Amino acid sequence: MEFIYLADHLEFLPTLAEWHHGEWGYIRPHDTAEAREKRLRAECGHAEIPTTIIAVDKGELLGSVMLLEEDMDTHKQLSPWLASLFVASQRRRQGIGAALVQRAIEEAKSSAWSGSISTRRAKNDSTAGLAGPCWSEQSTRANQRLSWLSTF
After folding, report:
1. Which of 38, 74, 123, 150 is the most buried (most CB within 10 A)?
2. If DSSP codes are grouped into helix, strand and coil, which group holds residue 133?
3. What residues make up the domain containing 70?
4. Model's pTM, two decimal places?
């Protein structure tokens, strides 16, 4: 398995947009997979924030994780944000989610960002628990479902 930038492998963009739309489409009920693809294209920087990192094995797309400058209007001071952690359903529970989270943390450390990396889980997020200890051992702040992942 290797971690690569979506920006360098846009052939995976339509599949990833479909996956993300299927998982989180309820957040924007009138959204389309095509609109999500357009947003993903704008958020797939190369060694910068925003960026999208994908996990690939022998040409097969396994999952993705994103780093965004911010993900909540009410918490703009918490930056960067780990977002859109997703692993293909048939490849879950194999450590891919945890590896993607670790890769995102490494990416944030190597960028110009400093401080901590934050995330939140959507209420119906079926990826909950994919990252194992990365999710479950983190402190949740109040009822806002925010988790601190790493200080760097």
Report:
1. 150
2. helix
3. 2-151
4. 0.73
